[in-house]
Input
Amino acid sequence: MDGVSALGLRGPEKAVGGRSGREIYTSRPDGNDETTNQVGNDGTTYQSGNNETTDQSGNNETTDQGGNDKLADQGGNDETTNQLGDYETTNQVGNDGTTNQSGNNETTDQGGSDELADQGGNNETTDQGGSDELADQGGNNETTDQGGSDELADQGGNNETTDQGGNDEKTNQGGKEEPAGQGGSDETTNQVGDYETTNQGVKDEATVQGGNGDFNYLDQPVGFFF
Output
């Protein structure tokens, strides 16, 4: 007779690890205010419910894939990554991480430290890999960074910045009054819009595709030989 039967309690016939006794579960697939730790320490996970947070890999990170004024949110408003429900947290692999794929006021982090990510929406931030980076692939007043340190990047919208690779750079591929830089240091570039500056590969230059200290003209080698 196992320990559970001895106590007159119903439970699993055999506990995990071959030990007999009553199992205590802190993870529930459905409901609210539930916690679970799949892989890591001090992590809470919720697959469906409210007031849950999760972190897949990293520390103190947030991300948002779609919405407005959200941190780590794939669908909804004012959310920080929520899979199913509102105010939920979960931690799959890491410490002090929160994530939500669908909901409100939820956060999530897929990999990195102190990073914010948002793939679509307004006033959102996201970071797919790196440290202290912000990234946003679509929306307004958003920042994104796909790889690097202390960089901002935005691939579509207005008043947005983006950086695909480098340090302290800003880039914007479409919009107005936006700075953008595809590669280099302390550079700004914008391929489409008004009142914008572009620098594809130089330092401290504005609206110049090749050269130094030039403005609003193409600095390219041109030769005339007669």
Notes: Confidence is low (pLDDT under 50) at residues 1-140, 147-157, 160-222.
